[in-house]
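Posting this for the archive.
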Amino acid sequence: QVQLQESGPGLVKPSQTLSLTCTVSGGSITTSYYAWSWIRQPPGKGLEWMGVIVYDGSTYYSPSLKSRTSISRDTSKNQFSLQLSSVTPEDTAVYYCNALLGSYDYWGQGTQVTVSS
């Protein structure tokens, strides 16, 4: 069974870049046809899909976040990462990494990121 664990700073200052890493165990991030996503949930709001890196390294982003978002991977460490630039307090949220393969849907426990000076 795939397991995911988010890691990164819990506090980021406005205008800085938020960086998170998802460490994957129980499966390889290059396994066909997995899709590895970042999803967030601001306080009091629903889930927001941010973007995905697919098993072959292709990336796709939410149109509303595309200009500020970058997802990359390190296959040697079996990790994928999120960078969100120019953050504001509106980017405060619980950030989740997710793995999807057909009906198999795995989630990390989530990590709280607060944007504040």
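The first strand starts at residue 3 and ends at 7. The CA atoms of residues 28 and 61 lie 22 Å apart.
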